[in-house]
């Protein structure tokens, strides 16, 4: 009996220790959540744009399948950047991952202190930081994706919104860059608005919230490289389409759009602005017909013609000679063709 009493005592002490550890763990988690958020918003059903009827979707598929069946893809075995022997499998895998890392397009309904305009301001600031430190294009896209996915799951105060942005850029840079800026440099980016400890703690909370899914996201640039093959990687078209796809980062309406479709919309709009057509080669490499891309084209034109949009940093960035003054051309074209674009869409509807 004495042995049994000792055994029971040991078990009681063990459970007491475990309970204490659980309480400490729970309290620590509560404190971590209080640092950035107060509660989790109600999860909403993810919707992928554009929402089309079954009949129209089937028609798109038939058109694409017909083109795919007879289109001859000239594979360049010496183009190491496209790894032709693996390309088809790679893009199929990327398609499977797309919806898995898309944020909720209505997540702002669950936020109490921030709104879409504040998100646009944050993304515009991230664009400045990204350009200032000469980071890779994918770093920016991953950072914005992390921000949106995090805000889809956590309620964030206005005071902590910039912390979410800088932490997302910190994570994206560590993942994508060869020589990522140090955490001290990210503290400097915020003009010491947040400490090193806050950014590191935010990184831990953010990665746990997103289940460490960072590498799953493939930016529109990955798809754009494939689509660019249709016009033999024309520099002017590609530069203009890069600007147009970055514009979508500032427009929350594109949160429901897959990266592959964002790339296609950007390329289609660039082609239209430069007087080109959306021929079979573009349909083949993008996977989307012209009719499929027109709603996104309309959204882009509307965004470009918003009052004061030319003051956004993305416009200033692409107004330089380095980027062929793409933003100046695009905004001027959009203003000239706004009514024409809206009328075309109304007729089709």
Strand and helix order: HHHHHHHHHHHHHHH
- Low-pLDDT parts are 1-31, 34-46
Task: Supply the CATH superfamily name of the domain at 218-348.
Answer: Cyclin-like
What's the gyration radius in Å?
A: 24 Å
Family: Belongs to the cyclin family. Cyclin AB subfamily.
Domain Cyclin-like: 124-208, 222-302
Keywords: Cell cycle, Cell division, Cyclin
Region (Disordered): 1-44
Tell me what the structure shows.
By secondary structure, this protein is mainly alpha-helical. Among the domains are: 111-209, Cyclin-like (Cyclin A, domain 1); 218-348, Orthogonal Bundle (Cyclin A, domain 1). It is 66% helix and 0% strand. It has 15 helices and no strands. It has helices at residues 2-36, 54-70, 84-98, 116-132, 137-153, 158-176, 183-189, 196-209, 220-227, 235-250, 259-273, 280-286, 290-304, 313-317, 326-348. The chain starts with a helix and ends with a helix.
Features:
Cyclin A, domain 1, mainly alpha, disordered N terminus, 349 residues
Give me a quick take on this structure.
This protein has 349 residues and is mostly helical. It contains 15 helices and no strands. α5 packs across α6 and α10 packs across α11.
